[in-house]
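Task: encode each sequence below as structure tokens.

Item 1
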Amino acid sequence: MILSASRRTDIPAFYSEWFFNRIREGFVLVRNPFNTKQISKISLSPEVVDCIVFWTKNPKRMIKKLEEVKKYNYYFQFTLNSYDKTLEKNVPEKKYLINTFIKLSQKIGKDKVIWRYDPIILTDKFTKEYHYRWFEYLVKRLSPYTNKCVISFLDLYKKTERNLKSINILPLNKDDMFDFARKFSKIASEYNLIIETCSEEVELSKFNINHGRCIDDKLVSDIIDEKLFIDKDSTQREVCGCVKSIDIGAYNTCNHNCLYCYANFSRECVEKNLLKHNKKSPLLFGDLNGDEKITDRKMKTYRRGQISFL
């Protein structure tokens, strides 16, 4: 299986101690986000975990302890945007993040660190020219330490729109997307950097930007040097190219406080859940009440060209 850690929250930034405790214990409990009484028990055995995909804006706390996952294959999706505290209230400064990105790449290799510049948001402050300048600066700094940049454009979910109500978001039409693609592609090509999109309907291949997959079976196959056969993840949107994975995170638990975040309902909800976190608990936050139904999730490895179960 592919373990996603996590689309729902930033485990490396805020829950790395909990994660390493779960690795030592060999399992994790994950609540169904739509029915909190249903809990899955997920094995973390290296025999069935083909790869771990870490999603983060700040993996600094995890870098020094990566020896604890030496039995696992993994790679990082590292988001590093151009925004300031206006949109990313608790995200560290750019110099710190750039240095962290470089240290991570030097430790695990550039193939295993994917740079994400997403979502792209237009405002009176964050204009196209603003993005172009920052993107070029970041490409210059990061291109020696990664092979790929993933981009996406803001999707205004209801909770995202509510959290951004104080920001004058400007609409992005297809022509705007073409402008970004044309400029970004030109910059990236000068530094031999590949650009792919994440969950975008717009076709940008004429700018040498193709549809990507963040949970990427080809990348995993390259990392483990073994062909994998994994189906597309049917639980994701149709435009998402990701293959199947199991996410061990929880919504409303990320403390970066990015106003564009789709995974947080409200700041108040996040703050309540942060107080319920226990690094020794099998759950990311909260306790078992005794009335839950805990089900052992059937795990399978995709290695060796066949499916094996645990």
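Item 2
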Amino acid sequence: MNRQRQFWLLQTGAWTAYGLESFLSEIGYGRPLDMWRLNAYDAICGFLLTLGIRTVLKATWSQPPAQRVRWGIAALVVASIIGGYAWWLAVSSMCGDCKPPKSWLGYLSYFFGWLQLLVAWTGAYVGIKLARQLQHEKETALQATAMAHQAQLRMLRYQLNPHFLFNTLNAISTLVLDGRSEQANGMVGALSGFLRYSLDSDPEQKVSLDQEIGSIQRYLAIEQVRFGERLRVGILVTPPAGDGLVPSLILQPLIENAVKYGISRREEGGRIEIIARVVDGGVLDIVLRDNGPGSLSYRPERADGQGGVGITNTRERLRVLYGDRQHFEIARLQPQGTEVRLQFPFETASENRTR
């Protein structure tokens, strides 16, 4: 229902109720039934006078508050004078039993009676209008915030490691030159699946952890062609963690860092582990660790507390999506290695649809 229709329904209903209440009150005091004409006239006058006040309020709504108040007071005074005069005419012509006031104070009471009634109407009208305006401003602010978050998430999505694609294509080229066409085809298939998932995934949407792990496995399969036995992987997802929703590609920058700083820098390679479970309180707990030497971008003791682009992007995406309900932590392992822990609310696709 639009606002204009709401106004007319409220305006008509309120003044109809006012006229009916006045008529029943007169009947209750033993007045004749033909008083309905005077009560109807009274309600119609109120209906028309308040339309005039509304016109003034709408015309001056964009002006400074002090000026709006002055125009509002002027409209109320003029409307009350007109209402008092109209009531005097109605009493004189429609009510044979009614006697005119014996002094000017009686006529003044007509004015103040209308003023009191019109002030109440104006207060209700302005209150509803301000409430609607405040609601609109809140909705606009929320929409602007959501749009900013969407743009921010899209920007973060595309800041993946650009060297990965180059290294992969270089590895495929090497396999082809060496005549290892079967491995090259397998690597092309893995790359195709990984890129399809990366490009099709909406950063504003969430996917199940199982889907995210599947993408990570395709990525690691590509890297294992490059590193061979130097790269060892262990993944443990304890039910029902696999059904939990996670931001798409949230683990990708962390895995890239683990390969770059934990595996490639060791001649003997290393091991990457991903462990996911649901802990008490309905929190999805994901741990990613490697046994490599690490790098400055992984050190938690950095002055800015953030690290490189991948770490910064992961922190920022979690902050945008979960606010204070998320936790991101990087820790140095002994004698060497790095552990990254992500925690955020555990929710499934079915729970998300019901909200």
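Check on item 2: The beta strands are 206-208, 231-237, 245-247, 270-279, 283-290, 327-332, 338-345. Residues 3-153 form one domain.
End of task.
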